[in-house]
Amino acid sequence: MASAATSRLEGLRDRGAALGGVVQPVSLLLVAAAAGLIVGSLRSAIFAQLTVQGLALGAVYGSLALALVLVYRATHVVNFAQGELAMATTYVAYQLIKWGLSYWEAFFATLAIAFVVGAVLEVVLIRPVLHRSVIAAVIVTVGLFILIDGLVNWVWGGDFKFMPSPFGTKIYHVGGVSIARLYPGMFVVVIVSVLLVWALFRFTKLGLGMRAAALRPAESALVGVRVEWMLAIGWGLAAVLGAVAGLVAEPSQFVLQPTLMQPILVYAFAAAVLGGLESPAGAVVGGLAIGISLNLVVQYVPAITTELQTPLAFAVLLVVLLLKPSGLFGHREVRRV
Amino acid sequence: MKARIPALASLAAVAALLCVLPFTLSDYNVSLVAQVGIFFVAVLGLNILTGYTGQISIGHGAFMAIGGYTTAVMSRDHNTNLVVTMVMAFAICFVVGLLLGLPALRLSGAYLALATFALAVSVPLLPLQWSKFLGGRDGVQTAKTVSNVWLYGAAWAVSAILFVLAWLILRGRVGRAFRAVRDSEIAAVASGIELPVYKTLAFGISAAYAGVAGSLFVLATNGFAAPDEFGIVLSLKILIGAAAAGLGTLWGVLVGAAFIALLPTVSSSVPVIGSSHGQDVVFGAAVILVMLLLPGGFAGLLTQLRRLKRA
Hints:
The structure holds two protein chains of two kinds.
Chain A: H1 2-20, H2 24-43, H3 45-75, H4 82-98, H5 103-130, H6 134-156, E1 171-174, E2 177-180, H7 182-203, H8 205-215, H9 217-222, H10 227-253, H11 262-275, H12 280-300, H13 309-323
Helix pairs in contact in A: 2-3, 3-7, 3-10, 3-11, 3-12, 4-5, 4-6, 4-10, 5-6, 5-10, 7-8, 7-10, 8-10, 11-12, 11-13
Chain B: H1 4-24, H2 27-53, H3 60-78, H4 82-104, H5 109-122, H6 126-129, H7 131-134, E1 140-141, H8 148-171, H9 173-183, H10 185-190, H11 195-220, E2 224-225, H12 232-245, H13 253-267, H14 278-293, H15 297-310
Antiparallel strand pairs in B: 1-2
Helix pairs in contact in B: 2-8, 2-11, 2-12, 2-13, 3-4, 3-5, 3-11, 4-11, 8-11, 9-11, 12-13, 12-15, 13-14
């Protein structure tokens, strides 16, 4: 019995690896897209700048999308409040810096606070409605959206706030292309945190338990996984990723205001769906794809103005949902009677 | 029949109260109660879709926008009678709803929530693109504006008509099919219900209701339709109203509509937090509390109370 349970957990480990491995046609597509971007960047300086900028913004979308995916995998809830939560934690960092912490001290303190807040929200608000229906859970996150938005406006006010930029204002010049240090900085911070979360899931016992709890809650409980703890930790980690997204999105918009994450949430939804809502790798790749393509499309397609950027992201979301609901990286859901 | 008597009596009481109210209230309060009537129509429409057919929509603000712009544009360009524009809004949104119901057939649960959310965010941005026809950021102004009493009468007359219509639709064959689809799609198909027909029909009816609500909504803002009025928060409000009312029953709709129409106004008069943002705090907290404490919404609360009385 025990060995059967172990082998099942081993099976989960294999399945996790299989999810990491990309399906063939999709990987070809991605290689082709990457090649196209590199060629374009070599031929045109503006193209290169837009690509780098898109990559950095895409990393932010990908990070928030990954947060959505973690929550969705753990509790099958789409967290509409994820963006507002990220925005609120950015305000916490702003406050900590104002109280005299250095930027990076505030950064890590904020991540810790975000983790606790995320986990507590799951326990207090989501768990009671989880068994009821998707609609109930969605509405609770919608209520949370309004509540957090109101709280931040109430405590800090709606006017612009300014935070010191952690990346400075230095500009690199690489063969005719000027790139603000901000963008590579954003990209590195996000990718490092995503890799850390991935490593946690892939190589630690805690991560194994979390994957098990998400996929087979009842069986995991039987083999001694504390499923409820795992779900709360999942929400906490999602809040941390969201906080990272908020903290690096702020310098890219140069001001802090309560609507900081609302457009980003829209792009993150599109990214998560593009990647297949259940696939962490898909969310990150989807975020990068959306970030780069939106940036390039607005520049090169005259019919698409910045006003149409958001509808365009949603058009992507709708088309993906209709043509391939499992996204680029997901697998088909089997429904049983 | 006997069981219906208290229900009919309470309906008559509400109707009588609504007839008397405009003569006793101040002009401002009349506009508030008219606001409740407008949300009543929208929540009723969403309840047909989400409560009876089990399909979530976070996009009903988009249908309200379509209905509202129909009224504003027709009145501006052709000086059409405002009541006629409401009928047109109903028809146009019915068709749009049917068309959007088709792709929605492939989606359910969280995916449908995301797709309709996409709709709610995208549609209000379209006037910015076709700014000549739809007024851009400045919006569209109707040729005529209406008084609060006119609006009150129109909103509640429409509410009454559409409530009866909903009751007629839901009590019969169509309503049974809707509920069967909600409870189990597979069982519904197995009993010979044509899933695509009823799912798209529910979308169409629901959108048509939202369209009329949108018409009234534009008239309530001095006949002015602008993209900002139809933001995502409007869609969220309607969904919250439907959930607070209690999904899958018509009796809570009035309370649900009053909840979303009046709570922001009421809470801004609460001391200490009575700032413009304090009202969002109260509203958000109230939504969460209602969802946690009243699983069946206000209608569920009513049923529970009745059960307690009987026990």
